[in-house]
Structure formats: structure tokens, C-alpha cells
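Q: Joint fold for the lines below.
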Amino acid sequence: MINRKVWFTSSLMVVSSFSMSSVALADEASQILAHLATKPLVRASFVQEKTLPSLQRPLVSSGQMLFDRQYGVLWRLSKPVQADLVVTKTKMLQKTARTQSEISLARSPYGSGATLLLQLMSGNEAAVKQAFTVKKVNYQLQHWSIELTPNSTDLKKLFTTIQAEGDQYIRQITLTENLGGKTIIRFTQPTDQPKQLDHAESTLFQMAK
Amino acid sequence: MPKAPFSKWRSSTLRNNTWFNKLGLFWLALLLITASVLASAWLQQRIHVETDIFKLLPKGEYSAQVQQANQQVSSLINQKLFVVLEAPTASTLQQATDQLLAETKQSALWQPPQPLLDSEALGKTLYQHRAYLLSQQDQQILSDAAQTGDYAALNEQALSQLLSPGVPISAELLKQDPLLFFPRFLLERANSLNGDQATLEQGWPTLQRDNQYYRLVILNLAKSPFNIDYQDQTSAWLEQVKQHIQQKTQVKTYLTGTLMFASAGTQSAHQEVSTIGVGSTLGLIFLVWFGFRSLRPLATEFAAVSSGCLMALAVTHVLFGEVHLMTLVFGASLIGVSVDFSFYYLSTQAAKRNMSGATVMREMLPSLLMGLLTTIAAYLCLMLTPFPGLKQIAVFSMTGLTAAWITSVLLLPKLPPLDTTRSLKTLKFLAKARHFSLANFRFRIALIVVVLLFGGYGLSQIKADDQVQSLQSKNADVVQQDAKIKQLFHQRQSSQYFVVYGDNAEQVAQREQTLIAQLQLLQQQGKIDGYQALGDWLPSVQQQQHSVQQQQQIPASLLTAYAEYTGLNRADLTTWQADLSQQSLLSIHDLKEHPLYSLYLSEQQRVVLLGTVSDLGGLHKIKVAGVEFVDPVSDLSGLFADYRVQAQYMIVAGLLLLSVILMLVYGWRNVMNVMLPVSLALLSTFAVQAFFAVPLNLFGVMAAFLILGIGVDYAIFYQQDQAGAASVSSAMFLCMLATILGFGLMSLSQTQAIHAFGLTVLLGVIFSFIYATLLTKSNAAEVAV
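A: Joint structure:
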């Protein structure tokens, strides 16, 4: 209805028709969905700021993010340590120069936080629908934002709200954690080029398959 | 007991009808008293009919320890019913789960439902002892670092986890476990618990596929899945609950588990028994009409078999304290063999219609008695096998057959002779064949030589199959549901497992740890796809203490660097390291709610379960002190094989025993005359099966005892022939057909055990009849073989 021409290609996917959200909310969320996910691949730089009440200063980390619809999300952390985190639909693989650990997401409460981003970005409609309730949607030309609350008991223990905003691409995700912590991930220089995965990237995705 | 009055009767009664009548009255009174005692016991519910099929099987030949483990493990595996709910939406899935659980709670058929795992509570418990719990990877990193002095890997590991996007870390955790050892331990364990795609919701594995929501709920049976009553009750309950759920929530239900397979097996056996029963009853009616132009023999045989069952039930219950359902079913059929005595008598009586029934009976009594005794001798051999079920069946059949025999002997002479002219005419060819063979020495020799050659060759080709699995029949619907559930939830559990023993808990834990290391190796090689061990969650005390030491050895320089990277308070890290030893060791008592707690049998014993096994050899090669590999299914198959071999020897022993008895009674020259046909019949039966590649199994060999009893009877009746070849051969022919109708039809069964039994009896009685007809000379003619 509104802003039909909006070119949301960033793969934010939100549906919550069974929640208490009004029809309008659901409609707007659906609008966002309607334009979703035409880009099979997004690359961006990211900076993560994790604030914990007990820490004197926020934990800051940065690196490159790669989203590939077919495989999942790859976070390549370059500061303060070199580490790769691959999140696929079923697994999470954490790899440093010397260590490597693999986590099956299903059985781990920590998995739900990690897959959350994958679900948001890959447009796993059913999963998002099941996991979240839409609290607020703002959907305007060139800018959108959405606020979600988790439905599942597992996620509720971790997060109170999840906010996301963006334009053509997703620009920022804010996770408000249950125990007073807050994580903000900012994406800069988003692009859909190059469309091909390089050798290191595809190797990492293969490892987490 | 019947024997004492009986001998008196033999000596004097047949000339004296009053004695005969008195005995009849006495027997009738005995039957009535027994019947009323049984009836009152039944009303007071003191008759115990056992329905657990496993009670028929011998206990495995295990040590007491393995025996206990075996029971526990089989209850872990067999006592579970897996219910999968398939719902179109998450909310209907929840409604259906609630309803299922509510109905389960109200039913006495199930133990109270317990979620698979309360991961939150478990996490909290383990957290109290976190200093003692390190993931294997961290143990490795720390021990490498302790050797090289380079702790960079640990730093990377902790930082990458702390900084990974989307992985929430609470401030509290960061303070108490700054290097995040505990989350890594928990993650590694969670991985080992199950690598599938289901998440736990309220403790139940739940997943979503193709727009459907699935949840696995595990119900624990209140009784044995092999208990036939329980199978009936649960089937009805499950059907009802399935319908309730479908009506209210549109949610579909799928079921699997040992209970479903066992129920399906019982049901198909039930169906077959009733189909076969109807078939054989109809067949018998035609047979009796054909043979005697009257349905009276049906009534007298019914009286004989019922009185037999009555006495058998009473004696068996007194001796065993219970009667098994299978004993009733099998035993009643075995008592049906008494029809042979009736047919033989009725034919003879018809041939000598000018004599009184009592006189005919007096003449026939010695051979009838021998017939009874030889059959009992054959069943006696059955009793010497170690199968508890077969012992009971043997006692039941021996008592029942004796009682049925007495009833027939007392009852039949009171009734007028029947008309056998029609059947005699039709079956005249039998007597002709018999004449031809008995008059033709060369033919007989040729026949014997051919049978011996053929049989000898056949026996050399025979193959045995004692696999327990191949004895089961599989219901397609049950198999389908099972496949669907396995495909969705990867519920895999092998029936093989390990038992770990030790003198004390710590020794057991250490041995288990050694075993686990080897199992992990096999897992990496793809020889097993997983295992379940308590030791994964509860390391040995030694290991726990080592873990604390490893963390205490982390150098201050690393902690300082880590504090700088993260902005953590350096003092917090010092406190953390100093306080490590303040926590208490994790003990078995902390894990009572753990799903693997059931693997803990005692301080001295634990069990390690296995997932799907693709290479048994690897498991057999594991040699750890105090660790024993148990493979109950193949052990049971081995036991079946042992018993089959034993039973084969018992058959030979039975042949010898009968030969000795017959020699004492008829003299050594007549032994061949009576024993040769049945021996050749047994030989031919197994040779024919070998030719058709029917594998030999225990049940087939058991059937041979029945053939032995029946086959000798045929020969005795021919030998003691009182009424001429035509009469006896047609009587024996009718006997053979009756046995085929009773047992031979079992060869149509889908259940392998019943099929094997039936097929052997079918072939065996046919051969016994043919050989006895052609080879056994009547005493009337001079015997010389």
C-alpha cells in the first residue's frame, strides 16, 4: 500500500501475523517482506559494541561480514583478534588460527542469538514468524526500522528486544540483553559486489555445512 | 492319578461292564471336581495366566552383573514409546502436546511423563561445579600451553567467543568465568547429546519441516511391552487419544517403539491363529463327515480335548504356579493329537461292528496305550530342553493327552459303531499300495535306499538360521511410522552396549573415560554414529582435579593481557583463579535429574549406550579392563543356536529311547518295523526343507518331537492292526489329514516361528504316513524286515 516502490533488498524478514500486533503492524511488516531478499549476497564492514554493566568500557570488535543466501553468514573478525565465525542454518563454526569449534545450533541456547541474525538476513520467514512478535514497524521511503520481541523461552532469557534498521541494506542491529547488556552492530560500506565467494570464504562455509 | 485305577481296569474290567461303568463314573467325578475347583479358583482370581512372551525365553547365560545391566538397558530401550505430533501451526502443536500429556497423566498405563531434559536446571547445577568441568578442546589447549608456555590459543579462543556477534554473555558470567570455559564445556556436551536439527522446547525435541511442526514426546511404559494384556490396553488407549487429538487440534500422531512392534506381532499372530483355527475347524468337519458319515466324532473329540485341557490346566498350574497363554494355545493343539486314537478306534470298531465296543477296545488297548506312551516319551524329550516355555508346554501336553486318551477310551466304546464304508471305498488305493509294497521286498529296499541317499544328501545341504530378528514378522504400517520418526528425529539406538565395572566409583569413572576416548575414535572413523555415556557429563575425580590445576596454572601474564583486551578488571581475574578451588567436585548425586542418570547402575557399574553401529568389528576390538561389550540380540541368537543343536541331539536321543521302549514291549525284531518309517520321515522332512533352502531353526526342530510322537503311533497302529489293511490305512489317512489341518496350516503363517513349526509338522506327518503305510508290516503277517 504505502511506498510500493521502496527497494528494500536488504534481507530483513519479519512476519508476525499471530502476535498481538495490530493488522496494520503485520501489514507493514509484510510490506517490508514483500520487497525482501532479492540480493543473494551482501558484504559489509561491521563494528560491534558490546556494553556490559560490569565492564569499564564497551567491548569493541570489528571486521567484515558476508551474507550468502545459499550458505549463511560469515563474520570475519579482525580486531582485537583474528577469528572467523560461520553461522549456517544448523551449525556455528568458530575458527581461530589455532582453535576450531563447531556447535550444533539446535541443542545450544547460545545458538539462538547467533541464528537470529541469520534468520533476519536470510528471510527465513517461518523461523522469524515463530520466534518473534513485531512491536513496532516504521516503513518510509529510504528508511525503515523494526522492533521485535522474542517469543521462545530460550530467546526471552537472552534478549528483551531486537531492533533493526536500514535503507537499501541493513545498517544497524541493536540487541538489548536481559541482564542490562546491550550489543550494537553497525554495518558500513554495504555492497553486493563481488558476487563470487573467494576461496577462503567458500572453504569456511563448506566446513560448517 | 489315572494310572492306578487304570491297570485294574485293564486286567478285569472289559469282561465286566460294571467295572467299566464304575471307572467311567469315577473319571467323570474327577473331571467335575477338578472343573469346579478350577472354576472357583478362577472366580477368586487365583488362576494366573502369564502373557509376557519373554517369560518363555531362557534367561541369557550372563554373569549376575551383566544380567542386571541387561535388564536395565532393555528397559531403557524397550520401555519407551515415541510419539511424534505433526501440527500445521506452533499453537496447535502446543495444544496437542498439552492434551497428550494431560491424558497420559490420568492413565495408569504410563509412568508420569517427564521432559527429556530440563537444560536450564541442569545448566545451573553444572555451573556450581564449573571449575572442574573443561571441554576436551580446552583440556587440550591448556595441556599444550602448559608444555610450550604459549597461551595465545587460549586467548584467541576466549576472545573470539566473547566478541562473536550475536553471542550474548552476561556480566555475571564474565566475572565468574572470564575465560568462558563453562559455556564451551556446555556447548561441547550439547553437541555430543545429539547432532540433529531438533531444538528442545519445554524439554521435548521440536522441529519444523515443510511447513509442519513436529514434536517428539517420549512416554514411559508402566509394564513390559511384551505383556499381551498391556499391549491390548495400550492399543485401545492410544487409538482413543489419537482420535481426541485429531478431533480437537487437527494434529496427526505417529508412534514407534518396541511396544508398537510387539503389539503388531501379537495382533498378526492372533489373526492368523483365528484364521487358521476357522480353516482347520471347517476342514475337520468335512473330514469327519467324509470318514464316518456322522458328526458325532466331533462331539466326542471335543469332550476328549476339553477334559484333557481341564486336567492339563490344573496340573500345570499346580506345578508352575501359573500358565502361560502360549502354553494354552500350543498345548491345546498338541492335545488335539488325541484325535488319532479316536479315529483309529472308530475305524476298527466300524470294521468289527458285530463285536461289542468294549471288546474291540480291549483288543486295541495295548496298541493305544503304546501310542500314548510313545507320544509322551517324545514330549518328555521336549521337557529336557532348557526353554522354560517348552517345559511348561510339555507338561501341559503330556497331562492333557493322557486325560484326553482316558476320556476317549472310556467314552467311545459306549457308542454304537459308525459307517466307514464310503471312505473305505474311496481310500481303497491306500490298501492296494500297502499290499503292493509289503509283498514286494525289492520295492521296499529300493524305497529305503532312495530315501537314505536323498535324505543324506539333503542333510548335508541344510543351513541353519538362528537370527532372532528373522523370526519376527514386520507390520508395514508400524515400519512406516518408525521410519518417519527416525527420519525426523534421528532416534537411533543400537541394542549393543558396554558395561563398565570397577571396585569403586572412581575406578569405574576412569575406565569409562578410557572407553569414551576409544569410542570417540570410532566415531571419527564413522564406525559408530554416537554414544551416550554419563562420563561425558561427570568426569572422574582425577580428571576434575586435573582440570582445576590446569586453570590454576594459567600464567598471570596471560590474564593481564586478556584483561587489557577486554577491559575486564584485572583483580576480578585474580579472584577468579584464586577461587577455583573453592567450588566442590561434581558428583553423581548432583546429576539425579540428568537424562543419562539411568546409565548409572551402582557405584561399581555403569552402562554406555551406542548409536547406530556400522562396523561391529571396531567395538569388539575395544579391550579395556573392566569393560564388557554386550550384544543381547546376537547373544540371544547364539542361545537359540545352542538350543537348536541341543534339541537336534535330543531328537536322536528320543529315537533311541523309543527304540528301547519298543524293544522291551515288542521284542528287538519289531523295533525296525516301527522305528524305520518315522526315522525316514524325519530325514525326508529336513532334506526337503534343505532342498527348498528353508533354513533350519529351533522351532522346526521342536516340531520334530511332535512328528516323532505321531509317526511312531502310525507305525504301531499298522503293526498291531486288528481290522485289516483297508481299515487301518484309511484311519491313518484321516489321522494324517486331521494333523495337517491342525498344525500344517500353521505353515501359512507370516510369523516365522509358527511357519517353521507348521511346515515341519506338515511334511513330517505326510512322510510318516507314507512310510508307515508302505513299510510297516502288520503282526498278522510274519514280520521280517
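Q: Anything notable?
A: Confidence is low (pLDDT under 50) at residues 1-24 of chain A. Chain A touches chain B through 58 residues (CB under 8 Å).
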